[in-house]
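Margin note: ligand = calcium ion.
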Amino acid sequence: MTQRHSRITAFETRSLMLIASVTLGVAGSAYAQSTAAPAAPAGDAEVTAAFVKADKNGDGKLTREEAAALPAVAVSFDRIDADKDGAVSSAEFAKAMKM
Ligand SMILES: [Ca+2]
Ligand SMILES: [Ca+2]
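Resulting structure:
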């Protein structure tokens, strides 16, 4: 009885490990995909479209408030604003999107 029980437990343990490894494998590939995506260079048209869309007042610059619509820009606003004028120009934006 005890031996039978322990055999079932061992089987269950193996099943759980298999499920865990499959789950981790799926999560791992999903993680790889999500980190690989931003590294792919964005096309000029995509970059321009994103910039124009975020530039609500159309002055050719993204203020910190306008950049809030683009999380990727908002989180690194200070780094992207290379000349530190408090706004991200289309050139600064294009450069950041291609890194
Ligand atoms: Ca603007
Ligand atoms: Ca700037």
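The pocket of calcium ion (ligand 2) is lined by residues 81, 83, 85, 87-89, 92 (CB under 6 Å).
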